[in-house]
Amino acid sequence: MLKKLVIRNYAIIDHLVYEPDARLNTITGETGAGKSIILGALSLILGERADSSVLKDGNKAVVEAHFDVAGNTALAEALAEAELDNDDVCLVRREVAPNGKSRAFVNDTPVTLNVLHTVASKLVDLHLQFGHLALEDDRFALDVADALANNQELRTTYATLFARHKKLLRQIAELKEKRALWQKEADYKQYLLDELVQAGFKSGEIETAEQQIKTINNAERIKTVLQGSRVMLEEGEQPILNNIKLIVKQLNSIGEVLPEVKSLQERLNATWAELKDIAEELENHDERTAYDPEKAEALQQRIDLGYKLFKKHSVTDTAGLEQVRNNLDNELQTTLNLNDTIEHLAVEESAVYKELLAMAAQLSQRRKGEAPKLNEKLNALLPLVGMPNAKMKVQVATIEPSATGTDDVSFLLDANKSGQFQLLQKAASGGEASRIMLCIKSLTADALQMPTLIFDEVDTGISGEAARQVGALLRKLADYHQVICITHQPQVAARGTSHAYVYKEAEASGRLSTKMRILPEKERVLAIARMIGGDNPGDAAISSAKELLR
Quick one: which H or E segment has residue 514? Predict the structure, then answer.
């Protein structure tokens, strides 16, 4: 509910603070005092376009509203969708600069006007004489019917099932699209896979072939180096191995007189054995090394094929080709299973759709069963609110399954016993629509979650008993929701649990400014008496005011 409304520098409002209570708040005041200006400022909170002409003395206009939102699930969902912080108190602020540019904030976070409108619609339902937010919502009549038929739990279950069905349809469509795409590319992918399989490259083969062809192309130089090295070790004029043996023999001759040389002998023997082994490996490498043009050509062909495939598949080594081959194999194998997957999902979708239709039929049966009762209740209320010639009809039409079922629920009105029913938003005048909406919402007050309800002169064009009934309906509605009503009727004003008075007051500069204050009981009697008997009410008017307040 609205805890506090603060308006600064807006039109003829310098600074105004309004703190309504939780039930029925009535607002009265002389024509031209500024009640409509307050509503204009409030409309900025609801996301309406800003007009720099409403600024006071060229200063920035600020409209700020504090809401107690504990338990408001609809708002919580809207805040979550907009990625905004959620707490027990929601602060909505709109600023309009002198250049006409405006900024909007929700819980001190800047938001777009679209987000502001979405969030504010969960906080305030503003019923102006010229239009109603609820009538613009195609689901409002459906929500009313479901609230009275206690369909909330069934509708929630249905909505979950509908979302599941939509997801299954989406999955099937995506898989069919994937299958169609695969069928176009399957032959080419199979060709690529066959080409790689036929090439048959093993891990590291191309890298090894590159090294082998280097060896073959440099065979003569390699053999020269290998042979020369082995000759120096074993066959030269002074072979290294023979010299080491000679050194060992010489050291052995002094071993008796110098025992320490024994360890040197052992080390030299180990060195001789290692060099002997190296000489043998050099000989083996020499024997294996030969210029083989046929092998070189075969290796070059493999390398050329490898590099062609590297370029084709945008890889740089044999491991990359292996990965491409595996990926192609997996893709082809996966697509082979698409038909089975699609068939399985289609069976599931069919079962879910059957269940969905059965649940939609339950919802529809309840709604159609509630429609005549709602007709009767609404038509009983219309004469009480000054519409004796009007008739309402709740129409339930069948549509394709949607997120709310297979029904389109509409409110129809015949305002003058013409026998011709039209959509309520087209057939009703502003005042009639306001009173009809009041009747509807009074019937669903204890069943439908609603934000703060603001009615602008819902009692226009009526008086006497009709005005009294409007006041009674407002008071009943306020037992469940916060209601704020701007009124000129004493029968309505007297039903308020809080009564605010709007007036103009001269500032120090001599200019007039709109003010508002909550009336205490004594002043309230006088204000209502003036609504009955004029500026100077007599005893009868005052007595009537007291009676109305009682």
Answer: strand 512-518
Structural domain harbouring 226: 205-316
- Tell whether 161 is covered by a domain: no
Tens of pLDDT, residue by residue over 95-146, are 988 887 889 999 999 999 999 988 888 888 876 543 444 555 568 889 889 9
Q: What is the pTM of this model?
A: 0.63
Q: Count of domains in the chain?
A: 2
Which DSSP category does 55 fall into?
B
Distances (CA, A) of 409 to 138, 139, 370, 397, 448: 8, 8, 11, 6, 16
Rounded (5°) CA angle 258-259-265: 100
Which residue, 316, 346, 378, sits at the end of a domain?
316
- For residue 387, being part of any structural domain is answered with no
CATH code at 39?
3.40.50.300
Which are the contacts of 281, defined by CB distance < 8 A and separation ≥ 6? none
Residue 365 lies inside a defined structural domain of this protein: no
User: Which DSSP string do the residues of 141-179 spell out, in sequence order?
Assistant: HHHHHHHHTT-HHHHHHHHHHHHHHHHHHHHHHHHHHHH
3-class SS of residue 330:
helix
Q: Is residue 291 part of a domain?
A: yes
